[in-house]
C-alpha cells in the first residue's frame, strides 16, 4: 500500500464521507474515488460499502485501519528523521581516540553532544593511536579522530582542542627523578620505551628531535601498545619514555615521575581531525561542538614543533 493511498483510505475511513474526505485532503472527490478503487484493486478486496446515503467500512476495511495509520505515521517519522539528519540533529559519527590520555576531551565532547543533540549517536572507538587512527580516518572506517599529529595529510582538516607539554617519564628511583628538569644530553645512554610510530606521530618526531639535540640515537628496548602500558614498563624500570602532560593528568602511575625538558620540545596539539571532503551533517555537528568547547586554541600564538636543526648543546 502506497503512503498516498493509505492517507486517502484513512480520510474516508474516518470521515465515512467522500466529499468531506476529499476536502480534508485538499483534492476533488473524483480523484479520491479513483484512488480508493485503485487501492481495492491492488488489495483484491472491497474496503467500503457505498450507497447514496451512507459509506461504511467493510470487515476488511476495518482490519486495515490501524496498519494504514501506522504506515502513515512511519512515513511521517521518516520525513522528520531525514530533516533532523540534514540538520545534524540525528545520525551516527564514528569517533576514534588514542586512549585514556585524551579521555577528558572525548568525555567533554560526548557530554556536550548528548545534551545538545540527543538524537546523534557518537560511536566511540578507543586504542586508535595517531598513525593507525589517521589511516582508518582516511580509509573511511572512522569519521573523526582525536589525537596528536605534527603533520597532517592535505585531505584532512583539524581543530586544536588542547595543547600539551612534552615530558620525560622516569621510575621514581631513577637518578634523574630527583632533578627539576632534564637536558637532552643527559639522556644519551638511556633505554627507551616507545609507542608505535608513524610519519605524522608526534612522539616519534619529537623523540627524533630530542636525539638530534642530545646528539644520540635513542636505544629503544620495547614498544608499548598504549600510554598506560608504557607507564607500567617505565614503573618496572624497563626504560624511560617521552610522553605528554595529558598522559600525566589522565593515567594513574604508581611509581612514575614526570620531568620537563630544558630546552623543551615545543607543545603538542591535541586535535579533532576529519576528512576535508566529508559532508556528513552529523559530523559537522560534532566538529561544531568541539569548536564551541575549545574556541580559542587554534588561534592562540603558542609554539608548536621547534626547529629540528637546533643544537643548543653545541
Written account of the structure:
The protein is of the alpha/beta class and 314 residues long. It folds into 3 domains: 3-86, Winged helix-like DNA-binding domain superfamily/Winged helix DNA-binding domain (Arc Repressor Mutant, subunit A), CATH 1.10.10.10; 91-161 and 268-299, Periplasmic binding protein-like II (D-Maltodextrin-Binding Protein, domain 2, 3-Layer(aba) Sandwich); 164-267, Periplasmic binding protein-like II (D-Maltodextrin-Binding Protein, domain 2), CATH 3.40.190.10. 41% of the residues lie in helices and 21% in strands. The strands form 3 sheets. Strands 3, 4, 5, 6, 9, 10 and 11 form a 7-stranded mixed β-sheet that branches. Strands 1-2 form a two-stranded antiparallel sheet. The protein has a two-stranded parallel sheet with strand order 7-8. The radius of gyration is 31 Å and the shape is rod-shaped.
State Rg: 31 Å
CATH superfamily label of the largest domain: Periplasmic binding protein-like II
Topology as H/E string?
HHHEEHEHEHEEEHEHEHEEH
Give the number of domains: 3
Indicate the overall shape: rod-shaped
Give the strand tally.
11
Number of helical stretches of at least 4 residues: 10
Task: Catalogue the unreliable spans.
Answer: 308-314
Distance between the termini: 83 Å
Mean pLDDT figure: 88
In the CATH hierarchy, the third-tier topology of the largest domain is known as: D-Maltodextrin-Binding Protein, domain 2
Amino acid at each position: 500500500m502506497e503512503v498516498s493511498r493509505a492517507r486517502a483510505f484513512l480520510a474516508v475511513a474516518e470521515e465515512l464521507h467522500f466529499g468531506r474526505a476529499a476536502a480534508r485532503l485538499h483534492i476533488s472527490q473524483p480523484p479520491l474515488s479513483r484512488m480508493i478503487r485503485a487501492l481495492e484493486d491492488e488489495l483484491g478486496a472491497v474496503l467500503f460499502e457505498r450507497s447514496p446515503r451512507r459509506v461504511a467500512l467493510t470487515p476488511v476495511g476495518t482490519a486495515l485501519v490501524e496498519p494504514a495509520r501506522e504506515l502513515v505515521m512511519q512515513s511521517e517519522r521518516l520525513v522528520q528523521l531525514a530533516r533532523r539528519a540534514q540538520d545534524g540533529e540525528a545520525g551516527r559519527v564514528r569517533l576514534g581516540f588514542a586512549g585514556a590520555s585524551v579521555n577528558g576531551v572525548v568525555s567533554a565532547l560526548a557530554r556536550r553532544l548528548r545534551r545538545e543533540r540527543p538524537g546523534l549517536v557518537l560511536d566511540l572507538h578507543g586504542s586508535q593511536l595517531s598513525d593507525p587512527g589517521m589511516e582508518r580516518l582516511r580509509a573511511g572506517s572512522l569519521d573523526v579522530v582525536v589525537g596528536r599529529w605534527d603533520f597532517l595529510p592535505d585531505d584532512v582538516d583539524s581543530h586544536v582542542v588542547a595543547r600539551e607539554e612534552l615530558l620525560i617519564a622516569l621510575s621514581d628511583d631513577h637518578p634523574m627523578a630527583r632533578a627539576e628538569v632534564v637536558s637532552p644530553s643527559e639522556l644519551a645512554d638511556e633505554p627507551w620505551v616507545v609507542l608505535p610510530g608513524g610519519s605524522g606521530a608526534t612522539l616519534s618526531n619529537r623523540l627524533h628531535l630530542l636525539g638530534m639535540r642530545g646528539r644520540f640515537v635513542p636505544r629503544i628496548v620495547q614498544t608499548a601498545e598504549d600510554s598506560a602500558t608504557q607507564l607500567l614498563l617505565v614503573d618496572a624500570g624497563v626504560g624511560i619514555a617521552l610522553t605528554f602532560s595529558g598522559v600525566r593528568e589522565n593515567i594513574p602511575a604508581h611509581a612514575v615521575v614526570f620531568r620537563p625538558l630544558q630546552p623543551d620540545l615545543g607543545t603538542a596539539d591535541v586535535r579533532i581531525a576529519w576528512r576535508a571532503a566529508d559532508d556528513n551533517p552529523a559530523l559537522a555537528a560534532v566538529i561544531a561542538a568541539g569548536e564551541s568547547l575549545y574556541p580559542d586554541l587554534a588561534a592562540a600564538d603558542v609554539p608548536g614543533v621547534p626547529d629540528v636543526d637546533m643544537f643548543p648543546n653545541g
